[in-house]
């Protein structure tokens, strides 16, 4: 293949740019969308988790209130009993007995309220734990997506690369591009630099006879690597 030295360099850059691009994956905006959705979901989960914890706190306060009421009522019942032991007046005894009965019945009510509150707080705590767990899992999801996005930061450079490939192709004659594309399809390289000893496509160090043939070829001639068929650019 014959090509001016400048064009050889252009062709080499094209081949190198194409090879560099093959490893990089595309898809930046999709990951960004997923991340935005995950962050929205995260805000919702954090709020739900906060409400669940608030419900637990409220119920704990309610339990403390019931327990405090119960303590007061038991003190009152104990007082009533002491006074009953000393009182002889019928009217006074009737009042004390009535008060003792009222206190005992209120204590019984409180005990069932307390039982209910304990059942309820158990469920509320489970719910709060579950919410906190979801927040944690969502946080992990966000971190994974952010890592993925950082990787895909090369998406912008991928677009730049596409543009550069277009520019380079514009600078080269069509028949050269056809030959290059064909050779590239065959061996995955097409064109590579020759460093004086080995081929930049297959990296095989060539025997002296091949080396001297390559060195002696006319400057605008692009010799082929006898091993892989890649067109070689000298003095690249
Ligand atoms: Zn080769």
UniProtKB/TrEMBL annotation:
Positions in coiled-coil regions: 28-76, 100-162
Gene3D superfamilies according to UniProt: 1.10.287.1490
InterPro entries xref list: Zf-RING_7
Segments forming domain C4-type zinc ribbon: 198-232
Keywords noted in UniProt: Coiled coil
UniProt KW Hydrolase keyword: no
Keyword Coiled coil included in the entry's annotation: yes
Name of this protein: C4-type zinc ribbon domain-containing protein
UniProt source species: Corynebacterium vitaeruminis DSM 20294
